[in-house]
Amino acid sequence: VTKHHDMQKKNKDEDLTDELSLSKISADTTDNSGTEHQIMMMANNPEDWLNLLLKLEKNSVPLNDALLNKLIGRYSQAIESLPPDKYGQNESFARIQVRFAELKAIQEPDDARDYFQMARANCKKFAFVHISFAQFELSQGNFKKSKQLLHKAIGCGAVPIEMLEIAIKNLNLQKKELLSEEEKKNLTVSTIITAQESFFSSHGHLQNRNINCDSRGLATKPRFSYG
Question: Quick check: 129 and 96 in contact, CB under 8 A?
Fold first, then answer.
């Protein structure tokens, strides 16, 4: 009985330590030393959420199963808190959706495809969303599907198109990475902003470009557990 009680106490202490660590990381994340709860109640915008999540991820190295589960729980919580109809055009929201799918691919590759599809349906204007999905398919040995996703992204008017063109070139060269780190750096923020401004000024309403994009979207989001 004493041994069982000691084990229970140890588990509680470990859980408390984990929560305190996460709270400390959260507190360091915002200008107002806000916790995750304060972000939800006060700001609850994609930028603050992404800042928090990246900080959590940075402090979760090396990544083990327990930390992966906690990260996935935080990402799913962010997605539940941010409506896609409001933030589908927001780059930080798109990055949250993509990173969530990538983490799910580490945990459960068979389930990850649904989350990449969700990111693509909700944030179709961003080239990196399509490329991330295509990279996943390539990692699963689905060359044809990967190529199809990249070409459909061009049909959607996803930007910057230069990013998609490089990814298609690398795919055709049978490279394992659709975008190298160097290529990502070369695609500067200013290039992306210019491409986006050009896209909107020349094409007007985005919804008119959705015909070739499988843009049915998701009427209901998959439910997430908060891990």
Answer: no
Return the exposure string of 50-87: e unless at least 16 CB atoms fall within 10 Å of the residue's CB, then b.
bbbbeebbeebeeeeeebbebbbebbbbbbeebebeeb
Which residue reads 């909700």 in tokens? 122
| pTM (2 d.p.) | 0.70
Structure tokens at 72: 């996935």
**Residues 117 and 140 reside in one and the same domain:** no
pLDDT in tens, 12-56: 555 544 444 444 444 343 333 444 565 656 578 999 999 999 999
**In sequence order, what are the residues at sequence separation of 6 or more whose Cβ sits closer than 8 angstroms to the Cβ of residue 103?**
68, 71, 72, 75
- Tell me: do 154 and 102 sit in the same domain: no
Which residues span the domain enclosing 114?
A: 14-121
Structure tokens at 154: 């061009």
Read off the pLDDT of residues 192-221 as tens digits, 9 standing for 90 and up.
555 556 555 555 544 444 445 654 445 334
Q: Which long-range contacts (CB under 8 A, 24 or more apart) does 80-89 make?
A: 80/221, 80/224, 81/40, 81/44, 81/49, 82/44, 82/45, 82/46, 82/49, 84/122, 84/123, 84/217, 84/218, 84/221, 87/46, 88/122, 88/123, 88/124, 89/123, 89/125, 89/206
